[in-house]
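Researcher: Please translate sequence to structure tokens.
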Amino acid sequence: MDSAVRGDAPIYDRLIEERGDVPADVRRVAEETLRQLTRALDFGAVGRPSGYPGMGFPPASI
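Model: Translation complete:
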């Protein structure tokens, strides 16, 4: 959270000192999880196996 927003919330500042900035930690973990999922579900990088129909060459063995 922006320091200007919490500037007049000393209780919040004390909680952050004691417990850490949980919302910021959650945000970072969520963003990293989203990046990992995006990479894991990127099927554009997956190639077809050799001999797959439509690749312009015959299947391995018929």
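Researcher: Any highlights?
Model: DSSP finds three helices and no strands in the chain.
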